[in-house]
């Protein structure tokens, strides 16, 4: 049976999973509480990384080094970058990148990490397909999309920036951890999957919508993670 590491940036994103875990053993490292045990009978480690790319990357490396996880799942909320993707919809990663990497002054395109063979990190196709199928089963009233997730150490809440991101990177949604988790997993030859529920439209209304829709969005990701872990 594979062991899965599950990362949420915020306590709200992981506390419902933690609450239903069994045989738990807790350890704090780098200020993060790693809760090891079983979820739906499957070995897993659930952890709140904190917000942003550095927290997310450190957390991923600890999951791989200290817990030897076979797969890293990142769950949480995100801002939509596409007009047809609305608050409450879900996005599953096909790949992920970091939109705030800027070595343009050094001759590279935005988002390209100098001297790495790739800056776009891919989720295994079978994982994306499985997550989409399970999501459709357990959240039948929710629309699910799969595609690119773009991450940065920025909360996107303006139309201009949103349009720039969409034109430049063709992402479906934006958040602040997935791309870093993807890179850290890639460096360790470990598969990853990002599951995000849309909490806002990453535009001028993002601040308001985020608070109002966050809880509902998290409900859907929790449902999906609990069902998905049983068929991995
Ligand atoms: N997480 C949820 N909404 C977001 C946004 N608009 N920008 C960055 N991260 C987010």
TrEMBL record:
<dbReference type="GO" id="GO:0019284">
    <property type="term" value="P:L-methionine salvage from S-adenosylmethionine"/>
</dbReference>
<dbReference type="GO" id="GO:0008930">
    <property type="term" value="F:methylthioadenosine nucleosidase activity"/>
</dbReference>
<dbReference type="InterPro" id="IPR000845">
    <property type="entry name" value="Nucleoside_phosphorylase_d"/>
</dbReference>
<protein>
    <recommendedName>
        <fullName>adenosylhomocysteine nucleosidase</fullName>
        <ecNumber>3.2.2.9</ecNumber>
    </recommendedName>
</protein>
<dbReference type="GO" id="GO:0009164">
    <property type="term" value="P:nucleoside catabolic process"/>
</dbReference>
<dbReference type="InterPro" id="IPR035994">
    <property type="entry name" value="Nucleoside_phosphorylase_sf"/>
</dbReference>
<keyword id="KW-0486">Methionine biosynthesis</keyword>
<dbReference type="GO" id="GO:0005829">
    <property type="term" value="C:cytosol"/>
</dbReference>
<dbReference type="GO" id="GO:0019509">
    <property type="term" value="P:L-methionine salvage from methylthioadenosine"/>
</dbReference>
<feature type="domain" description="Nucleoside phosphorylase">
    <location>
        <begin position="4"/>
        <end position="229"/>
    </location>
</feature>
<comment type="pathway">
    <text>Amino-acid biosynthesis; L-methionine biosynthesis via salvage pathway; S-methyl-5-thio-alpha-D-ribose 1-phosphate from S-methyl-5'-thioadenosine (hydrolase route): step 1/2.</text>
</comment>
<keyword id="KW-0378">Hydrolase</keyword>
<dbReference type="InterPro" id="IPR010049">
    <property type="entry name" value="MTA_SAH_Nsdase"/>
</dbReference>
<keyword id="KW-0028">Amino-acid biosynthesis</keyword>
<dbReference type="Pfam" id="PF01048">
    <property type="entry name" value="PNP_UDP_1"/>
</dbReference>
<dbReference type="GO" id="GO:0008782">
    <property type="term" value="F:adenosylhomocysteine nucleosidase activity"/>
</dbReference>
């Amino acid at each position: 049976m594979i062991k899965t590491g599950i990362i949420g940036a915020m306590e709200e994103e992981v506390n419902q999973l933690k609450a239903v875990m069994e045989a738990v053993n807790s350890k704090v490292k780098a200020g993060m509480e790693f809760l090891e045990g079983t979820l739906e009978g499957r070995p897993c480690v659930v952890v709140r990384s904190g917000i942003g790319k550095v927290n997310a990357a450190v957390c991923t490396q600890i999951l791989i080094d200290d817990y030897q996880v076979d797969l890293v799942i990142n769950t949480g909320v995100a801002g939509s970058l596409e007009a047809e993707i609305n608050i409450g919809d879900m996005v599953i990663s096909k790949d992920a990148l970091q939109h705030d990497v800027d070595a343009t002054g050094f001759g590279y395109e935005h988002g390209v990490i100098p001297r790495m063979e790739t800056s776009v990190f891919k989720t295994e196709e079978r994982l994306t397909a499985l997550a989409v199928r399970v999501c459709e089963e357990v959240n039948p009233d929710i629309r699910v999309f799969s595609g690119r997730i773009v991450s940065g150490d920025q909360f996107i809440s303006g139309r201009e920036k949103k349009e720039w991101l969409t034109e430049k990177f063709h992402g479906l949604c934006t958040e602040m951890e997935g791309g870093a988790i993807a890179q850290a997993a890639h460096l360790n030859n470990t598969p990853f999957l990002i599951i995000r529920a849309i909490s806002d439209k990453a535009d001028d209304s993002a601040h308001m919508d985020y608070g109002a829709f966050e809880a509902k969005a998290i409900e859907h990701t929790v449902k999906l993670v609990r069902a998905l872990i049983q068929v991995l």
